[in-house]
Amino acid sequence: MHVSRRTLLKASTAATVMAGIGAPLVARAQQAEFSYKFANNLPDTHPINVRGREMAAAIKQETGGRVDIQLFPSSQLGSDTDTLSQLRSGGVEFFTLSGLILATLVPAASINGIGFAFPDYPAVWKAMDGDLGAFIRREITKANLVVMDKIWDNGFRQTTSSTRPINTPEDFKGFKIRVPVSPLWTSMFKAFGASPASINFNEVYSALQTKIVEGQENPLALISTAKLFEVQRYCSLTNHMWDGYWFLANRRAWERLPADVRTIVAKNVNAAAVKAREDTEKLNAGLQSELAGKGLVFNQPDLKPFRETLRQAGFYAEWKAKYGDEAWSILERSAGKLT
User: Fold this and answer.
1) Is 23 part of any domain?
2) Among the four residues 76, 100, 239, 316, which has the most C-beta atoms within 10 Å?
3) Counts for the chain of helices (H) and strands (E), in that order
4) Which H/E stretch holds residue 326?
């Protein structure tokens, strides 16, 4: 077949024109329609960030690239209190935050952190996937935030120290301990006679290193990933609180997403939360021997005297009055009688 030079030139010109028309369309298809930031205060290797990256990838794929979620771990966008302000103003679209810190805005959000309330994980998930979680989510919604159905696990919290193990409630007397910026934590440790200091998590390592505080309390997974074992000597398995992270969204940013996209995002966020729960529980369960190998000395105190000390100090009665009878009765359905 003979093709003239003129025919080739015409074909080449047409292809160039079509490429010029098509290129912007390709660029537009590759650019996300919704670019959202997901901030948290956890190290990059924590299960919440591992599953968070998987979640973001799944959302991007299932929305055909319309939604691109970028992770900002390790308080890169500011402290918890700073980032909560950014979330409310729209500077950050997604944020995972402990209910005990969220309580500065939504008082009921800290109720799951009542000291020595939950004996084990089955009791936690019965409460948080059931009536107690539903109650807290309703209260969060009233604060003009969007909250996902499944709370992410941070785990049961343990007490570490550079000076002494905690074997009895009396060992807390005069103990300088870092606590998150939350009235519930401060109240509980004061009930034991400790000296709690409210410090944002991104400053904890340096506060322990410089001996501003003697100890802190966190789940083993966080003690490991944040390398707190480098500046602590003892770890007492107090299991004194269970703590989780609510996945929060700025309401305006959430409502900008079309309904079908919101369904995809919520489905993947909640699925990632359940996977991260399994990861965190396994990680916490397997870390004791690893951390002991890095120098932490473990002890297992009897927890009944701690609960009884809080009862006698009026801690439970005080917080029952603050939360109200409805919230407290929902808590006791899972935790048993506290007051």
Assistant:
1) no
2) 100
3) 14, 12
4) helix 325-335
Identify the CATH number of the domain in which residue 41 sits: 3.40.190.170
d(CA 117, CA 241) in angstroms, rounded, equals 7
**Which positions ≥6 away from 336 have C-beta within 8 Å?**
none
Residue 10 covered by a domain? no
pLDDT of 27 > 90? The answer is no
Boundaries of domain holding 98: 31-335
d(CA 110, CA 226): 23
Q: Which helix (H) or strand (E) holds 231?
A: none
pLDDT single digits (tens) 53-100 = 999 999 999 999 999 999 999 999 999 999 999 999 999 999 999 998
The per-residue pLDDT for 133 is: 98
- For residue 94, give every residue at least 6 positions away whose Cβ sits within 8 Å of its Cβ, in sequence order, or none: 36, 37, 38, 39, 69, 87, 247, 248, 249, 250
Q: Total structural domains in the chain?
A: 1
* Strand 94-98, strand 34-39: pairing: parallel
Single pTM value for the model: 0.82
Q: How far is CA 272 from CA 33, 47, 71, 103, in A?
A: 23, 10, 14, 24
> Domain for residue 25, yes or no?
no
Instruction: Decide if 162 contacts 233 (C-beta within 8 A).
Output: yes
Question: Considering Cα of 208, then 214, then 218, then 222, what sign does the dihedral take?
Answer: positive
